Amino acid sequence: MIAKGGSGPRAENCRVRLFEPTPEGPRISGGWRYQDAIAERLQAAGIGERHALELDPASSAPAEALEDESVLVFDSLLLSLGSPPVWLDDPRCRGRRWLLMHYLPSQDPTLPPGRSEELLAAERLWLAGVDGVLATSEPLAEQFYRTHGIRAAVANPGVDGVFRGARGPRTSRVAELEVLCVGSLTPAKNQLQLARALTVQAAASGRAVRLVLLGDAELDPAYAAEVVAASQSLELELRGLVTTEEVADAMASCDLFVSCSLFESFGMAVAEAVASGCLVLSSDVGAARRFVIEGRNGRLVPPGDMRALEGALADLLGQTREGVHHDRAFERLRVPTWEHTFAVFLSALGVGFEPAGSGEGGTQQYSSCRLPTKRGEFEVGVYHLGDGAREALLISRGALDADEPLLVRIHSECFTAEVLHSLKCDCDAQLQLALDCIDERGRGAVVYLRQEGRGIGLGNKIAAYAQQATGADTVDANLRLGLPVDLRQFSDAAAILVERGVRRVELNTNNPDKVAALVAGGIEVTGVLPSHTVPAPEAVAYLETKARRLGHALETRTAAEVRGTPSLIVFDVDGVLQHDERVDPDAMAVLGDLREAGYRLRFLTNDGINSRRTRLERMAQIGLVLPETELYTAATLGRRLIDARGLAPILPLMGEPALEEFRGVPVSLDAPRAVVVGDWFGHYDPARLAAAHRALETGASLIALHRKKSWPTAGGRHIDLGFWVAGLEYCAGVKAELAAKPAEFAYRAVLEDAGAAPAETLMIADEVDPDLLGAKAFGIETLLLDPSGAGDPSVDGTVRRLDEIAARLLRRR
User: Fold this and answer.
1) 0.85 exceeded by pTM
2) pLDDT(811) > 90
């Protein structure tokens, strides 16, 4: 046979038989864990199972391969063990045959001479006997095509919900720094180089370093012994055969996760580390670039580059754990779940296993109206789905097909919460929050899907509630009843949005499957707005289960916790702590008192001239000393917005030192994706302005670090960046997107990094517009520092001096 990349008729509801080498117990490697996850779901769905296969070329076909027209899937771990059995071409095997490729054995750079050619020959023999190839990552599929000229389908690995769930505090330990590496101990994973690099860094810094290796040392005992010998100056922990929960706990405890593989197709542990919120250092192999974003959640280095590895370790080990962006919703949610992977896996094989009630046939709107509500008027459209037996609603306001990303929520019906106001979940609160956000923005949409009880129906949902009353959680309750944990599918939502011209969205969700469904449907998800609500005490355990077991990025707080004293205070710097080149004499004392009282502090400035580094240096020179991770300048936020939106290359209208924040971002004068305008008043030369104008007219985005009209100084107000922003908007006919205050992006970035909700945050500034209006619109409590004492009805309170702030807040504690 010739591999056809999945040709042949669709096999509706047939069985899948996964053949693999004789199991030797659980393994830590991604290939083994991928098999386990897929096999577990095949068995739970009742449509398949795994089989051990001994590679004896002369053996006859096993009975399970002859029983029916099952899809036969052969794991790539078999390819490195020898040639395929002769029965692969047995005409009695009527089912289609697939290779499941976790890696391409012949491309391992650590192979001894001649071994690569042997494996390449074995791969060709296997390919001659199968109908299609399914790769576990896009980079692997590309490598497979370069090597064998065959197109492979792709089903990326998923991440278990336990990696997104909140876990306990870091375990106590002797070492100052803990570094974690997960993977089989083999030369291809390169733990030896990591041990040597850490030894160098430990000696240079004089700090105690603990290296935790979770790996299968017995696969290569000689190499494992080398790694242990190289780690003698470190505190070493070496463990294998660990559970998924143990891996997740280790990631929650470590200071830095490192993957220094020379050869990787996906990097499952890297994805899990990102979902856990770890700071990550990874070789730039496989799909690492998909998850690790330079300057935000880690570093990438060339594989095998010892100098680059040592330098990155030195930089990252110098960062505090508190400075890590360990709760960034978008970074965590764009990692697929295993439920999504399983659906893609079955679809690629042509196996028809769809949730009850779903079907093909597309979407068709059959009625619509403009509906007046307490929030104003919404357009409501009702759609027939599939064969017409199911319905969905699109609730929207404003232009849906505009260039700017549309705020969207995909919401599944919940009768008990939305009609009976049940306290067992926060579904109604999430829906109301989304509608409130659309009302505030004047534009957005909710796709309302009739998928009661995560797709099992109202009657089954009530039966599951009865199981929960006996102690089962929301997952186990379904399983006790013999029901799937989650039968929902969100492709219909993508289809409805695409039909209405939506191409780019900001998705309001905690569910990674919704992100994956929109991306699979051809919609660009530019960001994720978490749907954090104030749950009733009766719902907290339910929400924690969804975070722990289903991978939802949830924060659960009781109403008392959120409505009580704020835990995060965000200071506007200029005009509150610093006045021109003078620092308020009470500043450091007030900040010290607040820290001692347990408040977390962050500092925002619309300074578009300085980088974070140079602004910190300037403030330190006049006596205002702040930790690096607590300060956000306009340029810092601008770089973050460019990364989040994927808008490289850029045309910058700014100078040093603000440009320092954009190091590593490609620059183009001819075809930029964004024009970034900052405080560069003395250098707006005509040629660069003309290039910016051309770019904006041909579709580039306009990103402004801020748009303040004027700047207060001791000598009066000076014209500010808003002058240039307004001019560019007028000339090019575009609207600028702001990075700093009053943009929601700025406040959301600060709060996400701090792990705080708007309801537990206080913003202190000296100007209502833009500082406090932007904060208040985002749901943050506000306080105006106003020496005149005149006050302002648009803010929550007024004080005259910094020491009044401290006195008021310390009383609240």
Assistant:
1) no
2) no
